[in-house]
Amino acid sequence: MQTENLHYDLTLIIPATAAENEHPEIVGEIKALLEKTGATNLQTQDLGRKKLAYAIKNLRHGFYFSFEFNLGTEKLQALDLALKLHKNVLRHLIIKKKIKSAKDMAREEKIRTGKLKQEHIKQETEEKEKRQAVKAAKPKISLEDLDKKLDELLDEKVI
Predict the structure, then answer these.
(1) What is the DSSP secondary structure assignment for residue 74, as one 8-state letter?
(2) Are 47 and 65 in contact (CB under 8 A)?
(3) Which long-range contacts (CB under 8 A, 24 or more apart) does 30-38 make?
(4) Which of 26, 131, 132, 139 has the fewest CB atoms within 10 Å of its CB?
């Protein structure tokens, strides 16, 4: 039985007691662990040093790292267990992510640059102008004409 590879995001915390020159070595160990379990399309991002919300093993700060990768679902538990047992990982979280299409990435880029809001405002103004043009194109009926038409309709014999 063959399972499909899904896209995952792994975020983990390395203790602040680890020197910054040790980080590449620790990240290398995590990458090797991911590749050993069969992860593909591996991308790494250093999120920097951050204060923890609460003390973990009497530590108040940690270095955050994020890894994006594709992995088969049957290998996820093995990866989770290996990360729990890794001595340099305080906490970790693995999240299944939706693979972004080119359309989604273009939309996110527009949002970042603020173009999406501008386009939305432009569309709204165009729609208002169209509605006003339609209203202006309709001839206005005077009250006298309206009364005449109403009298004609009321005078007709309805069977």
Answers:
(1) G
(2) yes
(3) 30/65, 30/67, 30/83, 30/86, 30/89, 31/67, 33/79, 33/82, 33/83, 33/86, 34/10, 34/67, 34/69, 34/71, 34/79, 37/71, 37/75, 37/78, 37/79, 37/82, 38/71, 38/72, 38/75
(4) 139
Q: Are 64 and 11 in contact (CB under 8 A)?
A: yes
Reply yes or no on whether the pLDDT at 115 is more than 80.
no
Q: How many whole angstroms separate alpha carbon 39 and alpha carbon 131?
A: 55
What domains are defined for the chain? 5-99 (3.30.70.60), 104-155 (no CATH)
> Whole-model pTM?
0.61
Residue with token string 């004409």: 145
**Rounded distance between C-alpha atoms, residue 141 and residue 152, angstroms:** 16
Q: Burial level of 30, CB count in 10 A (0-12/13-18/19+)?
A: buried
Strands (E), the chain: 5-15, 40-56, 59-72, 91-97
Residue 100 is given by DSSP the state P
